[in-house]
Design brief:
32% helix, Rossmann fold, alpha/beta, 7 strands, 7-stranded mixed sheet
Amino acid sequence: MYNKRPVNFAGVRGNAVLLAQQFVGEVLHKGCVAVDATAGNGYDTLFLANIVGESGRVYAFDIQQAALDITARRLKQFGLENNVKLIHDGHENMNLHIDSPVDACTFNLGYLPGGDHNSITGPSTTVKALQIALDLLKPGGRISLVVYTGHPGAGEESRAVEEMAAQLNPSLFGVLKVTFINRSLSAPFLIFIERVKKEK
């Protein structure tokens, strides 16, 4: 179970994925609905499934069947496959598969580690997916994006995502960018988005 403490930057040692998990994990609990917009090797899907439990639901997307197969095996290893729906489709189509509000959504952009480096997320589909995720997000819900910058095509995508996030209405969304300033220019950065809670 996720330990809901403040983010420990020393503990994660600059690991962007762990920081992203801590950010979304703080608003998740049993029974929540979460989305892994880029299943990849299944680590975020596993993390989300463990938190939301059998009473919750996780939707995990990937355009590569190999990624979904890896994710399925990882979930089965920990007995967490029953509350996860693996979807062989691009995240820009998540609204075709999800018809209920979600509590959190994670994006891990780029390519599948150990997979085909020519199959990467792109600016147009990622921006569309992010807009859909924002529309689905409950008040108080969170979105994390781990944005990689070192591979071909990453620059265009990272600029598009950052520009979109910067233009979000501050009365509706809080947006934070996290960078590792003591690492190379190709190091990933993170964008954290939280939908402002409605007043009671």
